[in-house]
Amino acid sequence: MAKHLSAKIGPSILNADLAQLYKESQKLLDNGADYLHLDVMDGHFVPNLSFGHPIVKCLRSKIKDAFFETHMMVSNPEQWIEPMADANVDQYTFHVEPIKDVPLICRKVKEAGMKVGVALKPGTPVNVITDYVDLADLILIMTVEPGFGGQKFMEPMLQKVAWLRENYPGLDIEVDGGVGPSTIEACAKAGANMIVSGTAVIGSTDQAKVITTLRDTVNCYLEHNHSK
């Protein structure tokens, strides 16, 4: 029996006022966010720099029990496993592209007490994950080129989501990039159940409404597919 998947909405705080990180994060949680998606960039794997484990650790000291996912857009994900575990991160999602031995990183993340997320850039074919999907708790399909918020959604990436959902019905599949009320239906239809939304949630005057809309749309498709 495949586990019953549920919709989870994890706003990305990259586009929030980072000087008010705690306040903005708490507000998102108060407005119904299921988890926080924290974009960590090293200026190398992606051309942008964001924040690292000291900030995540400070945020965790204020927000004790929310689920933190760090999206590690970094060239050497192995380097940050221990520091992020020390910051009490729940899910460590890293990119396959810069790594030779993905299963090794998966195991190290698990050993450090975190869940394993494996992320694919738009140019990476989805079938690369067959070798280690059993080691991952989540596969993240990027629907924009990683590195900057506010980019245009890349609809063809949803073919990857559909392929994953067909082949791994019980898998948590996350989409990230340009996802909001206008693109959520396509994501839900393809089979994504974990939704990262940055600008669409952060920039809204009614965050709770946007989060609810995203969740309801995904749940609608999940229930439909579950009952088939």
What is the beta-strand fraction? 15-25%
Return residue spans where pLDDT drops below 50 for at least 5 consecutive residues: none
Report the CATH topology name: TIM Barrel
Average pLDDT, to the nearest integer?
Answer: 95
Tell me about the largest β-sheet: 8 strands, parallel
CATH class: Alpha Beta
Cα separation of the termini: 14 Å
CATH superfamily: Aldolase class I
Structural class: alpha/beta
Radius of gyration: 16 Å
Estimate percent helicity: 25-40%
Q: In total, how many beta strands?
A: 8
Strand line-up across the major sheet: 1-8-7-6-5-4-3-2
**CATH architecture descriptor name:** Alpha-Beta Barrel
Order of helices and strands: EHEHEHEHEEHEHEHH
Number of domains: 1
The shape, in one word, is globular
Number of helices: 8
Pathway: Carbohydrate degradation; pentose phosphate pathway; D-xylulose 5-phosphate from D-ribulose 5-phosphate (non-oxidative stage): step 1/1
Keywords: Carbohydrate metabolism, Cobalt, Isomerase, Manganese, Metal-binding, Zinc
Catalytic activity: D-ribulose 5-phosphate = D-xylulose 5-phosphate
GO molecular function: D-ribulose-phosphate 3-epimerase activity; metal ion binding
What would your notes on this structure say?
Its cofactor is Co(2+); a divalent metal cation; Mn(2+); Zn(2+). Keywords: Carbohydrate metabolism, Cobalt, Isomerase, Manganese, Metal-binding, Zinc. The active site is at 39 (proton acceptor), 176 (proton donor). Belongs to the ribulose-phosphate 3-epimerase family. 34% of the residues lie in helices and 19% in strands. It is built from eight helices and eight strands, in the order βαβαβαβαββαβαβαα. It has helices at residues 21-30, 53-62, 81-86, 102-111, 158-167, 184-190, 199-202, 207-226; strands at 8-11, 35-41, 67-73, 91-95, 115-120, 138-142, 172-176, 194-197. It has an eight-stranded parallel β-sheet. Helix 5 (158-167) runs parallel beside helix 6 (184-190) and helix 6 runs parallel beside helix 8 (207-226). The two termini are 14 Å apart. The mean pLDDT is 95.
